[in-house]
Amino acid sequence: MQNDNSKLFRYRYDFQPKPLLDFIRERYFQDRDEDELSSIIDSRVRLNGVKADGHAMIQTGDWLEYKHLRSDEEAVELNIEVLYEDDRMLAVSKPDFLPVTPSSKYYFNSLAILIKEKFGNQELSPVHRLDIETSGVLIFGKDRQARRLLQMMFQDHTVKKTYQAITFGRIEVNEISGDLVPDTNSSIYTKLSLDQSEIANSLTIIERQAPWGNYNRIWLRPVTGKTNQIRAHLAAMGCPIVGDKKYHPDESVFLDWHHYRDIERILPKVKLERQALHCESVSFKSPFTNQAVTIRDGLSEWENKIEPLLKH
User: Do 88 and 43 fall into the same domain?
Assistant: First the structure.
C-alpha cells in the first residue's frame, strides 16, 4: 500500500548474506537501536513475499519489500529559490544538503519529490543531477516532452556548465580527460578513478584559478557529465575538493563518516561539513524557442559557505 506519506520499496538483494537487521540499519536507519529496528522489520518488511522478523538473514538473490514512511525522515525547512521559469522548464538553486533523486533514506526529502509537491505538478522532473553535497543551478522539465528535449541537450554536450570548487592545492593542467572507471583498489565500492590510458570519454576544462587562503579556488567547466566527474578528476590530479569525504586521499575519512555519520570526527581533515563544489551557471539554446538562455545562481550562499576557509 502506498500514499502521499509512504513509499513501498521492492528490490532484489545482490550482495553478500548478512543479518536483515544490519542491512536495514545501514541503508535506512543508522540512528535506531536494535529494538526499534526489530519493530520496523516486524511491521514493515517482507522477505521473498513473507513477513520477516528481526532475526532473519538476507541472502544473495532474495527479494525485499520495505514500507518507508514520511515520518522516517526528518522534516526539512526548505525555501526554494527559483532562478528561471517559463512554460516548459523551471530552474532552482539546489541546496547542499538534499539529494536530487529519491534514494534509500532520502525519498520524501529529495528535490524530485519536494519540487513536485511545492509546485503541484507531478510531471516536474529534474533533467540532470548534482551530488547531494553540491549546490547550484538545477533544471526541471515541466512535462515529459520538455524533460526529454532538455535531457537530450545534456546528453549531446550542448549545455555549457560552469562550476566553482575549492581544492587542496593548485591544478597544474588546463584540462583533465580520460576514462572514469570503478576504483578496484579502493575500500569504497562507489569510488571512481581516472584511467588516462583509455578513451577520453570524460573531459573537464580548467578556466582559471586563484588562491583562497591556504586553499585554491577554481572556475571549471565539465564538458561531459559523468557521475562524480569533477570530484574524481580533481582528486586524480592530487587536488581533491575541500570537504569531499569520498575522494579524500585518506579513505578512513569516508569509512568513518559512513559508519558514524559524525562530522566532528573528520572535520579536522575535510575542513568543511559539505564539499566545496557549486554550479554557478548553465547556458544553452532553448529547444523550445531557439533563444539563448543563461541561468545563474547567486553566489552569496556559496561565498558564505567557503568564507570560513580563509580563517584556516
Answer: no
Per the structure, the complete domain to which residue 67 belongs is given by: 6-71
Dist CA 250 CA 44 (whole Å): 38
Return the pLDDT at 31: 79
Return the bridge partners of 50, or none.
47
CA distance 133 to 98: 7
Statement to judge: residues 145 and 247 lie in one domain: no
Quick: pLDDT tens for 122-139.
999 999 999 999 999 999
**Chain position carrying cell 545563474:** 296
In angstroms, rounded to a whole number, what is the distance separating the alpha carbons of residues 149 and 162? 21
Q: CA 125 to CA 144: how far, in whole Å?
A: 8
Nearest to 161 by CA among 269, 283, 247: 283
The whole-model pTM stands at 0.91
Kindly report the CATH number assigned to the domain that includes residue 203.
3.30.2350.10
